[in-house]
């Protein structure tokens, strides 16, 4: 990383004075594609909110379980929005293990994701990465690389994993989901998780910390607010035996064999978690 920390060397025009969500998340996941500015921002937050570390790792495991589950239902096309930097068990690896030939389009608005993703995916003809902003849903769906790899007349799995809290209210995060799903056929699915808190003060604390770091972000929302993601869709049961009420749960407990799905972490001290679910378009 040493040469990458020299401004202007990798990739060009990278502003090393402002942390990026993609690189901060990479640091929490113990990746190597982050800079001093990202590490400092996260280290300061971890002191006061150590559960960040846990819920980021839980979220990544949720992503893999959910992709495997959706592939098992027969979906072989994935649009991974806000995909982040490559890590272990990326969407294409999980999806193609479960369903060889599955196609994956990774989308992120941080160009560093493109820089890393292109190199990793160079030899995988069924996968690509594009730089786009998910708020422009038509630009994402009509991007030539999206339409080259995905047949939008067949079910697609849209992934909004640990993403919608990056979108401010003014940009109507849940309206984005509706616009995307409106253009996709019945049987399409959405995999999502969102940082939530049932302690408004704690939620506001994290929101202000991330915004103060200088990065563009939305906010921590309440579990009730995040339920809007699945509006008009059929939520899948979070239980591996398909029983119980289909509800959104702490991502750490979504379809984990032998684990009861929980609407919030059992530890009352844990004030924040990734609220998660999978829903299907009827
Ligand atoms: C917390 S990371 C989540 C990465 C991955 N989805 C996961 O759950 O492991 C959020 C990602 O969303 C990207 N992102 C934020 N706002 C976005 C936007 N408006 N359009 C596209 N990507 C965005 C960030 O650059 C970052 O890589």
How would you characterize this protein structure?
This protein is of the alpha/beta class. It has a single domain, classed as Rossmann fold (3-Layer(aba) Sandwich). 35% of the residues lie in helices and 15% in strands. It is built from ten helices and eight strands. It has helices spanning 21-28, 36-48, 51-72, 91-98, 111-121, 137-141, 144-149, 173-182, 200-212, 223-226, and strands at residues 77-81, 103-108, 127-131, 157-161, 189-197, 234-235, 249-250, 272-280. Strands 1, 2, 3, 4, 5, 6, 7 and 8 form an eight-stranded mixed β-sheet that branches. Strand 4, helix 8 and strand 5 (189-197) form a beta-alpha-beta unit. Helix 3 runs parallel beside helix 4. The termini are far apart. The structure holds S-adenosylmethionine.
CATH first level = Alpha Beta
In CATH, the architecture is 3-Layer(aba) Sandwich
Name the helix and strand elements from N-terminus to C-terminus, one letter apiece.
HHHEHEHEHHEHEHHEEE
- Any idea what the CATH superfamily is called? Vaccinia Virus protein VP39
Poorly predicted runs are 1-9
Number of domains: 1
Say what the CATH topology is: Rossmann fold
Straight-line N-to-C gap: 47 Å
Helix content: 25-40%
Number of contiguous helices: 10
Shape: globular
List the helices and strands and how they pair.
Blueprint: H1 21-28, H2 36-48, H3 51-72, E1 77-81, H4 91-98, E2 103-108, H5 111-121, E3 127-131, H6 137-141, H7 144-149, E4 157-161, H8 173-182, E5 189-197, H9 200-212, H10 223-226, E6 234-235, E7 249-250, E8 272-280
Parallel strand pairs: 1-2, 1-4, 2-3, 4-5
Antiparallel strand pairs: 5-8, 6-8, 7-8
Bound molecules: S-adenosylmethionine.
């Amino acid at each position: 990383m040493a040469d990458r920390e020299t401004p202007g060397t990798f990739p060009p025009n990278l502003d090393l004075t402002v942390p990026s969500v993609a690189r901060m998340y990479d640091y929490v996941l113990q990746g190597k594609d982050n800079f001093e500015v990202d590490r400092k921002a996260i280290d300061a937050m971890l002191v006061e909110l150590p559960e960040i570390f846990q819920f980021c790792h839980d979220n990544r495991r949720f992503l893999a379980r959910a992709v495997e589950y959706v592939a098992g239902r027969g979906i072989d096309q994935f649009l991974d929005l806000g995909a982040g930097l490559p890590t272990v068990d990326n969407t294409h690896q999980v999806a193609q293990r479960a369903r060889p030939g599955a196609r994956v389009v990774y989308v992120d608005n941080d160009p560093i994701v493109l820089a890393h993703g292109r190199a990793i995916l160079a030899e995988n003809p069924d996968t690509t990465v594009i730089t786009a902003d998910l708020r422009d849903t038509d630009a994402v769906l009509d991007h030539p690389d999206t339409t080259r790899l995905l047949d939008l007349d067949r079910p697609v799995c849209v992934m909004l994993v640990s993403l919608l809290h990056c979108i401010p209210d003014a940009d109507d995060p849940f309206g984005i989901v509706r616009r995307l799903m409106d253009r996709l056929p019945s049987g399409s699915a959405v995999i999502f998780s969102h940082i939530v808190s049932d302690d408004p003060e704690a939620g506001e604390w994290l929101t202000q910390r991330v915004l103060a770091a200088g990065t563009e972000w939305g906010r921590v929302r309440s579990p009730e607010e995040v339920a809007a993601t699945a509006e008009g869709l059929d939520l899948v049961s979070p239980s591996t035996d398909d029983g119980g009420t289909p509800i959104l749960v702490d991502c750490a407990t979504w379809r984990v064999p032998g684990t009861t799905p929980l609407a919030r972490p059992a530890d009352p001290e844990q004030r924040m978690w990734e609220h998660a679910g999978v829903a299907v378009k009827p």
